[in-house]
Amino acid sequence: RKEVEQDPGPFNVPEGATVAFNCTYSNSASQSFFWYRQDCRKEPKLLMSVYSSGNEDGRFTAQLNRASQYISLLIRDSKLSDSATYLCVVNRLSGGSYIPTFGRGTSLIVHP
Amino acid sequence: DTGVSQNPRHKITKRGQNVTFRCDPISEHNRLYWYRQTLGQGPEFLTYFQNEAQLEKSRLLSDRFSAERPKGSFSTLEIQRTEQGDSAMYLCASSLGGLTYEQYFGPGTRLTVT
Is the pLDDT at A68 greater than 80, yes or no? Predict the structure, then answer.
């Protein structure tokens, strides 16, 4: 089993739709979780951190479920500009150090 | 531009040659990370530095790979005796501190080994 898993998609949704992605992790000692956005042929950029209590930033909501070992990202009222790959990052314990581990990303395509 | 910069942006080399990439982080950032990304995959962690100290190396980093950050500022990643499987995007990122801090990525160096 991969340490961080994401459904690669693509998720193909119309403008205005609500879409949710999950990211599961295997190491229960993991901490510090993030969602990054990566546009085609560009570098990843931070979308939002994921806090234990859940957090919201405009149309985006991130949640952490430690018991089931996953984080989620909810996008409401999708815009064409939301089309991108969404990468989750988990800092997992490995050999005494925490290593940032990315999922393979979930592709989102928002169409008119 | 005060972001993370990487040079060169593209490198084409023949199998067996050595290549070196440079990363200039955001000036006040003390952590610097190297990743490798191939098509359809997320960035894979290679190594990271806290100031000039290399604190962790992935098992992906074979003995052909070496990284340095001599004065705690810019960093270099060298690949010796390149193989076709080394073809990838090499990304550098920096952050102000540890785990809870956002990483800022550079535009990457795309390596093609022929």
Answer: yes
